[in-house]
Specification:
The complex is a heterodimer. Chain A is α/β, with parallel strands linked by helices. Chain A has 15 helices and 14 strands. Chain A folds into two domains: 19-58 and 97-207, Rossmann fold (3-Layer(aba) Sandwich); 64-95 and 216-389, Rossmann fold. Chain A is 44% helix and 17% strand. In chain B, helix 2 packs parallel to helix 12 (241-257) and helix 3 (60-71) crosses helix 11 (229-236). Chain B has helices at residues 3-13, 31-40, 60-71, 76-84, 99-104, 106-115, 132-138, 155-164, 187-198, 212-220, 229-236, 241-257; strands spanning 18-24, 46-49, 92-95, 118-122, 144-145, 147-149, 169-172, 203-206, 224-227. Classes of the chains: A alpha/beta, B alpha/beta. Bound molecules: pyridoxal-5'-phosphate.
Chain lengths: 394, 258
């Protein structure tokens, strides 16, 4: 935590683990050493060509990177702006989550930690983690809220097929935030042998910075792809925000361009939208909470965005005005989900449909612009839920 | 030196093992009677938990006690205002998580602790690296910030930790969260010895203490113990303040016998 002397560049190394007034390392004494170890090892690995090559090879040969850039001709015509999709849905395991997971799983291997714990909401990060653990022969325990286990039974079974143990979080609201609590409690007791593979750009330093770096590949690829296709940078870059990892990944490729950066939050979980700072799960950020500091439950149609906090770097980008954050309603999301399916033949994850929902709403403002949307995941996991919502019997 | 530290040093120096029982504030209608019962049973300081929705350092018992308190409409403000009228001389210490004081502002929280007659604070998710703003808010107030030491804190960290801790230093007996254990393992004695070697602050060990026997073991190489889950289980199971007090008396007797 004692790097550069000059002012930190946007999306560079955070100074003292902080992004402006957000971030930090609010962890119990037992975990301070482990966080410092992860930070030191990450910096060593990131400066090591051998590690970078190993990760790049896995991303290419196993995850299927680079992910495609798809121009949406029919949707563009309908909405009146040029829409390009960064296709993270085409990655192995069906979302962007695999980028971070492969990076951290390799890092755990470097640190000699054979056991991995992770939290999951919808199950996408849990499935990706179980996948990487199977690939590298690591022991894997995934915590998942009891309510989410019921909502996402198929992903629970997938994780078990992949050899992971899924443990239900039975406390609090029994959703994602409680799964994070249980994973942290596990880590406090097992820290000598276990790596906590956090699934978004949240938690204590160095996680928000490290997870961003593992997702930077999204933005780096997209920037080249958009330039090759259009000869310029996009006017707007749009992504959904739960913890904020897919958004930070794509933003990182465009933060130093003229592009406007738009993060889309679910209306029922708009941590930035409410704008009240708090401290939970290791960092200061915007946080849904009551007047007494008790954390509130986020509620939206997509389990993957039901997190009451948000990554501290997003809070900072909002603070300084470099990115804006917009809420969309569940109804708008269900509309956008069907719109993409019908116009482009792509079924998006409900999370990713949030980004599209905002584009559809803001079409007047975006008229004539080139809009890059991060399609963070595919919607197979959500089809049953949508069918039920639409009153279809499948 | 703060009221809490002065009191604990005097008691320790008189040859007594220190006993700090815990209660989750607002856990029941008669939670203030529980504090009075601890006082009668010979507590040297009393820890009052201010419940937080996401207590990552707590195991199932304290989580359940916190949920029960929150379910009764307990807030940090109700706890601190109820403490104002409490007629107990034993020093009180609040235990909570960072977001609780952060939400109202550290300065205001420190003031409210003062008005409630609280003399110590334990905030397990504010490690040394994040302590400056809290310390600045405490300033000259008579509120000792107790730091936690972990069995795997490196030697140089322990030295810095005891330098910043006030009141006493809280040694964590186990790798893990709060909750009763039949057997404390080797960490406890080792950490107590390492702490005693670097400080003359009272060294009080907590986490995992389930019985008079484990209390005696954990205090052998240290100056005393914090006991929480074992008592909160009695309350959660429907026990009365008198029964909780009786358990604390049994701890007192065991510690005095040695
Ligand atoms: C497809 C997809 N997109 C987005 C998210 C939200 O995470 P983040 O905000 O970290 O990108 C999830 C989380 O489960 C997801 O599965």
């Amino acid at each position: 935590m004692s790097e550069p002397t000059s002012a930190p560049s946007l999306m560079g190394e955070p100074e003292n683990g902080r992004f402006g007034r957000f971030g930090g390392q609010y962890v119990p004494e037992t975990l301070v050493g482990a966080c410092q170890e992860v930070e030191a090892e990450f910096h060593r690995a990131w400066a090591d060509d051998g590690f970078r090559t190993q990760l790049a090879d896995l991303l290419r040969d196993y995850a299927g990177r680079p992910s495609a850039l798809t121009e949406c001709h029919r949707l563009s015509e309908q909405l009146g702006c040029r829409i390009l999709l960064k296709r993270e849905d085409l990655n192995h395991t069906g979302s962007h989550k695999i980028n971070n997971v492969l990076g951290q799983a390799l890092l755990a291997q470097r640190m000699g930690k054979q056991r991995i714990v992770a939290e999951t909401g919808a199950g996408q990060h849990g499935v990706a983690t179980a996948t990487a653990a199977a690939l590298l022969g690591q022991d894997c325990v995934v915590y998942m809220g009891a309510v989410d286990m019921e909502r996402q039974k198929l992903n629970v079974f997938r994780m078990r097929l992949l050899g992971a143990e899924v443990r239900s979080a039975e406390t609090g609201s029994r959703t994602l935030k409680d799964a994070v609590n249980e994973a942290m409690r596990d880590w406090v007791a097992t820290v000598e042998s276990t790596h906590y593979l956090l699934g978004s750009v949240m938690g204590p330093h160095p996680y928000p910075m490290m997870v961003r770096e593992f997702h930077r590949v999204i933005g780096d690829e997209a920037r080249e792809q958009v330039r090759a296709l259009t000869g310029a940078d996009p006017d707007a870059v749009v992504a959904c925000v739960g913890g904020g990892s897919n958004a930070i990944g794509i933003f990182s490729g465009f933060v130093d361009t003229q592009a406007s950066l738009v993060g889309v939050e679910p209306a029922g979980g708009a941590a930035i939208g409410h704008g009240v700072p708090g401290i939970v799960h290791g960092s200061t950020s915007f946080l849904l909470q009551d007047d007494h500091g008790q954390v509130q439950e986020a509620k939206s149609i997509s389990a993957g965005l039901d997190y009451p906090g948000v990554g501290p770097e997003h809070a900072h980008l909002a603070d300084i005005g470099r990115a804006r954050y917009e809420p969309v309603t569940d109804e708008e999301v269900v509309e956008a989900f069907q719109l993409l399916a019908r116009t482009e033949g792509i079924i998006p994850a409900l999370e990713s449909a949030h980004a599209l929902a905002w584009v559809a709403r803001a079409k007047d403002e975006l008229a004539g612009q080139t809009v890059l949307v991060n399609l963070s995941g595919r919607g197979d996991k959500d089809v049953a839920q949508i069918a039920e919502l639409l009153g279809e019997d499948v | 030196m703060g009221t809490l530290e002065k009191h604990l040093r005097e008691r320790r120096d008189s040859g007594r093992k220190l006993l700090c029982p815990y209660v989750s504030g607002g856990v029941s209608d008669d939670w203030l009677d529980i504090i009075r019962a601890y006082d009668d049973a010979g507590a040297d300081a009393i820890e009052v938990g201010i419940p937080f929705s996401d207590p990552v350092m707590d195991g199932p018992t304290i989580q359940a006690a916190s949920d029960q308190a929150l379910g009764r409409g307990t807030t940090p403000a109700t706890i601190l205002s109820e403490l104002r009228d409490l007629d107990v001389a034993t020093p009180l210490i609040v235990m909570t998580y960072a977001n609780v004081p952060f939400r109202v502002g550290f300065d205001r929280f420190v003031d409210e602790c003062g008005a409630a007659g609280v003399h110590g604070a334990i905030i397990p998710d504010i490690p040394m690296e994040e302590l400056d703003p809290w310390e600045a808010a405490v300033g000259e107030a008579d509120l000792d910030t107790v730091m936690l030491a972990s069995p795997i804190s490196a030697d140089d960290r322990l030295e810095r930790l005891v330098g910043r801790s006030r009141g006493f230093v809280y040694g964590v007996n186990v790798l893990g969260v709060t909750g009763e254990r039949a057997d404390l393992g080797d960490w406890s004695g080792k950490l107590a010895g390492r702490l005693k070697a670097v400080t003359d602050l009272p060294v009080i060990m907590g986490f995992g203490i389930s019985s008079p026997e484990t209390a005696v073991i954990a205090s052998a190489a240290s100056d005393g113990v914090v006991v929480a889950s074992a008592i909160m289980r009695i309350i959660l199971d429907g026990g009365t303040a008198v029964e909780a007090g009786a358990f604390v008396s049994s701890l007192r007797t065991a510690l005095d016998r040695g």
